[in-house]
Amino acid sequence: MSLRRSDTRHRVVLATAQMLAQHGLNATSIRTIAQRAQSPLGSTYHHFPEGKQQVVTEAVTWAGAQVSEHLAQQLQAGAGAGLRDFLALWRETLLRADFHAGCPVLAVAVQEPLDEAGTQALDAAAQVFTQWQAQLAGALQAQGVAPEQAAGLATLIVAATEGAIALCRAERSIAAFDRTAAQLRQLLPS
Amino acid sequence: MSLRRSDTRHRVVLATAQMLAQHGLNATSIRTIAQRAQSPLGSTYHHFPEGKQQVVTEAVTWAGAQVSEHLAQQLQAGAGAGLRDFLALWRETLLRADFHAGCPVLAVAVQEPLDEAGTQALDAAAQVFTQWQAQLAGALQAQGVAPEQAAGLATLIVAATEGAIALCRAERSIAAFDRTAAQLRQLLPS
After folding, report:
1. Which of A23, A33, A36, A110 has the most B C-beta neighbours within 10 Å, making it the best mutation to test the interface with B?
2. What does pTM read for this prediction?
3. Do B163 and A161 touch (CB under 8 A)?
4. Tens digit of each residue's pLDDT (9 = 90 or more) over B7-55
5. Does B102 lie at the interface with A, CB-CB under 8 angstroms?
6. DSSP character for A77?
7. How many CA within 13 A on the CB side of residue A55?
8. Nearest chain B residue to A113, by CA
């Protein structure tokens, strides 16, 4: 695959993640993705022959991996550093979009598709959430938190962060995110 | 307004809340709402002359009020009883829908409309989230929690519950909700 073709493919994945984060799953079509990525429709289908379900699945997996890589790096300095990074990343996303976009994984999770029966995108969303939780829980356990409590705390962190993104978008304010983040920080072992 | 006309109106609001909870904002149109509510399109527009934005706004407000009324009753027995009821209500919603539907307020919060510029529905979502948080924070304060901590804890509860709904829908399992709920219960004053 030439660099040029690979660039197009990545541009389509990125445009899809952005559309999901802003407008959600059922407002995202191959046509609007291609427009946003400035990729001809034929070329878009060439890269993603299975259509929307395929590109959405890849966008969710890609977005999840971006966060996951960040998290893996920061967690080397402990669960607290990982949490700070995870929170900072989503806070910055909200502020940069002026609350008009949030998390593409959340978008896929809360909308049953109208048009397609496939569950690949939803499965990809589940895998992303599971991965983030596993990374956080692993770091907490490494700091002496018991496995069940570490798993619970990791789930609370991911759930509360995703929920806070929704609250902030509705309120067009970062206040709910900051209150949530302060609470989560209190819960971590020092 | 006759009882019959009022019934139609309520059926449309209910169908809208259900569609939002399952398919999200951008998959919900006046036409699909009317079909689901078994209300003729003309009659639906008669009740909601401003169209989709009006009926979505009313559905979000209605759904928020249902939860709010429950919460107000249960909070009379303390913050713990209120939290238990809030969690039980969403847990039941997820299980009843077999994870194919969640929260209509969350759905509106995370999807920028493609077609309409109005922000009434988003404002309604913000009001609902604010109302739930205020009720929980009030009960926590009444039990001696300092105002800032009560506000933070109330936001964490709402954010984590909404986020857990998304995690469970992706994973088609109640496990993440139960882990989140157990963590939240640990945080309340006994």
Report:
1. A110
2. 0.95
3. yes
4. 889 999 999 999 999 999 888 899 999 999 999 999 999 999 999 999 9
5. yes
6. T
7. 32
8. B23
Q: Which of B2, B28, B31, B5 is nearest to B17 (CA)?
A: B28
Which ipTM was obtained for this model? 0.95
> Is B2 a residue whose pLDDT tops 50?
no
Neighbours of A6 (CB within 10 A): 11
pLDDT tens figures, A26-43? 888 999 999 999 999 999
Place of tokens 């598709």: A113
Highest CATH level, class, for B52-187: mainly alpha
Residue contacts between A and B (CB atoms, under 8 Å): 172
User: Do the Cβ atoms of A49 and A133 come closer than 8 Å?
Assistant: no
Distances (CA, A) of A34 to A12, A138, B123, B160, B176: 7, 39, 31, 35, 35
Domain parsing of chain B, residue ranges: 52-187
Tell me if B179 and A156 make a contact (CB, 8 A cut-off): yes
The answer to whether residue A1 scores a pLDDT higher than 60 is: no
What would the CATH number be for the domain defined by A54-187? 1.10.357.10
Interface residue A35 vs chain B (CB under 8 A): no
Check CB contact of A81 with chain B, cutoff 8 Å: no
Where is pLDDT greater, at B87 or A117?
Answer: B87
Which chain A residues are within 8 Å of B112, Cβ to Cβ? 22-24, 100-101
